[in-house]
Structures are given as C-alpha cells and as structure tokens.
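[audit] Reproducing an earlier prediction to check determinism. Same input, same settings, fresh worker. If the tokens differ from the archived copy the diff job will pick it up downstream; this log only records the rerun itself.
[audit] input (269 residues):
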Amino acid sequence: MPSAFQIVGILNVTPDSYFDGGKFNALEAAVRRAGEMLEEGADIIEIGGESTGPGSKNVVLEEEQARTVGVIRAVRKAYPHAQVSIDTYKAAIAAEAISAGVMMVNDVTAGRGDPKMLSVIEKSAVQYVLMYAKDNSPRTTVRETQYDDVVATVKKFLRERKEAAVQAGIAEDHIILDPGMGHFVSSDPKYSYEILRRLSEFCDLGSPLLVSPSRKSFLAGSENLPAGERLPGTIAASAIAVLNGAAYIRTHDVLPVRRACEVAQRIGS
C-alpha cells in the first residue's frame, strides 16, 4: 500500500535545539545523519539553522546562512535524489536555500516574520508550510494561553495566512498548513491533544496538513519526562495525526514513527 503521508526528517544544525542541539553541527555529521534518515524511510530531510523554542537565542542572518546552506548543498551532492526542506522564517535564507536545491520552506511565522518571504516563495516553485503560532515573534514563549475553541482559532489564523499567501501570488497547491503543537499553541498540553483529536476539521481548509509533535513538551505527561524519553508519546501522537488526516509528519525519529504511521494508515483505510 503506498503511503498517504510523507515523513519529514528533522536535521537541526544548531547548538540549542531542545532535543538534538549540537549533535549534527559538523558538516560530516549532518550529511551522515541525513543518510541515516533516508535509509530509515524519510521522504524529506528538513534542515534548520535556528532554534525557535522557548529561551532560544536570535541568530544573525550570516550565522544561519553559514550553518545551513553548505549542509543543503552537501546533502544534495551526497544524495542527489533526496528531497530537502529548509526551516526558516528569513526570506534571504529561504532564497539561498531554494538556489541550493530545497523543494520546501517551512516558516514558523507563516509569513509574518519577514515581509519579503511571500515574494521569495512566489518567485519559486517550492512548497510552503504556514504554521500557527500564538506569538507574533518567531521565538515561542512558555505561556498557558487559553482558548474558547482552539481549533476555531487556529483555523481562522491558517485561513487568513493562506489567503495572504495566495494573494501574494503563491499557487494554492504549493501551500501546506501546520496547526502547531506544544508551546507554539499553549504551554497547557490539553490544546495540543485537542488539535490532534480534531485534526480532520482542518481538512476543509483545502491544503495538506503537516503535524510536528516530535519530542515536544506536551508529551511530557504526568511524569514530566525530558525530551529524550518522549519517543512513545511521539509515536502515538504521530500515528493519531495520520489517522486523522495528516499528509506530512515531521519527526526526529524516522524509523519508529514511519512504522507506526503505516499501521495507522492501514487502520484508517
């Protein structure tokens, strides 16, 4: 059975990402990790050069460029058939990454972080991920934001950002929507659970859905598990997302998550 979902393998070339920060900063380590994820079944390798989690630090343009563009080129050279994505909200980084061969730009600010981003995407043929975030800044905060209806709020935001992207000339079939997870929605985990439970309600927005629960804080549970112990929760959340309509699952743990999502697909078919 062909997969109805794609796995986006996370490759952070940063010192401070909450789970894999510092592990793959060296070029050789990053290329090797990309190869491992491809062997495990990743459909897309997503390279990120700036953490946007709580407490992370701003990264100047030149530093993010130095971290990411060389890795993109090296991965594309080592694995010519690999699909590569860039995780950035900066238009200049997106433009360089597109020139280096990425096929997707994942923007946690949904085009709000850099006024030039939509224009850069419009001039290319890449896929563009618009993500919900409670904060206006690229950096998310630890805050227990409360919602009367979290799905209605997130849908309204994504609908408006999609309309802005289309009005900027971006082809509708190049747009992917991400409802957000963890602190990007609220530090109260119940809202991430509700989004997963009601994920199918986002399908009427008319775009594929990307979901990224991987190792995030809302999976810590009553034991307050550290990120290194959140794999079981990551697997469960990812499988439920596929069962409820996710087209892309973004994860650090390609092999176990892919296998779980394949089972979820069989259950839902």
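[audit] rerun output stored. Observation attached for the diff report: The two ends are 10 Å apart (CA to CA).
[audit] end
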